[in-house]
Amino acid sequence: MGRRFVIESVLVAIYGQLMVPSRPVEYILPYSTLAELYELKDSPEPVMPDEQEDAHVKSMIGELIQFFEDSLNKKKIERALAVPWRKSPPILVNEMVSFTIINSVDNAHYGEIFDPIETELILTAIHEKVPMLTDQIELVDKMIQGEVPVQVFDVEDFEFALEDERSSDDFKTLL
C-alpha cells in the first residue's frame, strides 16, 4: 500500500522528485489548487526567484495543466466537481504516482488564520485523515500555533515522510 499526502498542485511542478518516489504515492489535490495552476502559469509574477528556474517551473506547470486537460483525466476530474467532498477516481501518472482530485470546500473554521487555499489543504487533510506536504515554513508555523490537528511534512523531508511507518490508525489518533 502506498502513502497518501494532501499537497498543493504547484508543488508537484516545482519539485520533480515528488514524481519519482521510492514507493507508491497518492497525492490528494484540492481542486482549487488545480485552478490556481492557470493563474500561476499566466501571471507576470514569478513563481521562482531565479529567472531560469521560473521559466522551467512555468513550463512544468503548463505540462501539468495539459496532463489534467487530457480527455480521460478531465472526465475523472469533472466527476469530482458534482458534489462537495467527492473524489475523482485515481489519475495514474506512472507506476509509482497517482493523483486524486477532491472537491474540497472552504469554510470559516480556519479562515481567520489561513488563506482559502491553505484552509482547503488543511480541511482536506483532516477529511481524508492523511498528512500534508508543503514547502511553506510559515504555514507550518501557523498550523503549530493554531494547534491544527494535521501531520505536516516539509517537501525537503519527502523521503522521511515516505518511510514514516505510522499507519492510518495512528494518524487518526492525532485528530
How are the SSEs ordered, and which strands pair?
Layout: E1 3-6, H1 9-14, E2 25-30, H2 31-42, H3 51-69, H4 71-80, E3 91-92, E4 97-102, H5 116-128, E5 132-134, H6 137-145, E6 152-154, H7 158-163, H8 168-174
Parallel strand pairs: 1-2, 2-4, 5-6
Antiparallel strand pairs: 3-4
Query: What helical percentage do the residues reach?
Result: 40-55%
Which regions have little confidence, pLDDT < 50, spanning 5+ residues?
A: 167-175
The overall pLDDT average reads 89
The computed structural class is alpha/beta
What percentage of amino acids are in beta strands?
Answer: 5-15%
Largest sheet: 4 strands, mixed
What is the CA-CA span between the terminal residues? 22 Å
Number of strand elements: 6
